[in-house]
Amino acid sequence: MAPKLIEEGLANNKKYKVAIIPHFKEQNHSFFAQLAKELDGSKLIDLRDEPHHVVEQIAQSELVISSSLHGLIVADSFRVPNLHLVVTNKLLGDGFKFDDYYSAYGLSHEYISFDEINDISKIPEMINNSYRITDEMVSEMQKNMIEAFPFNKDEGE
């Protein structure tokens, strides 16, 4: 539903090749800074920033790599190909929330661990080759959500 929160057409104006979104508990892990340094046109997004700004930055990205489920969900809502990156074991739940999210699309949760990445320059290719959520899947999910909880931006409801 994130596309309903930003200016129409903003997502068509891509500013970043790769958005890098660490979970707030992993914000200071050195691997994220390394990714931002080595991936041309990348943007390191801090989820603790103003939410509307975070959503806009994700929408304006061509690809997303995230250790945060929220980053992946927002990317999917804008149909931005993305990949779940596991960096630490600091996050609670042993990945069940990721399993639950992807099961809503009838998919299994797939991810990559940062220690499996041999060549950072290959990450964009990895994202494009592994992304499985289709436009139709997202449209159907959004339609079902609107039917369950109608939203009218103009009326502020």
Provide a quick synopsis of the model:
By secondary structure, the chain is α/β, with parallel strands linked by helices.
Question: How does this model look, in words?
Answer:
With 157 residues, this protein is α/β, with parallel strands linked by helices. It is 36% helix and 15% strand. It has helices spanning 30-38, 51-59, 69-77, 96-103, 123-130, 135-148; strands spanning 16-21, 42-44, 61-66, 82-86, 111-113. Strands 2-1-3-4-5 form a five-stranded parallel beta sheet, sandwiched between helices. The chain starts with 15 loop residues before the first strand and ends in a 9-residue tail after the last helix. The mean pLDDT is 90.
Count of alpha/pi helices: 6
Percent in strands: 5-15%
As residue ranges, the low-confidence spans are none
Order the strands across the largest sheet as they lie in space: 2-1-3-4-5
Shape: globular
Could you outline the blueprint of secondary structure elements for this entry?
Elements: E1 16-21, H1 30-38, E2 42-44, H2 51-59, E3 61-66, H3 69-77, E4 82-86, H4 96-103, E5 111-113, H5 123-130, H6 135-148
Parallel strand pairs: 1-2, 1-3, 3-4, 4-5
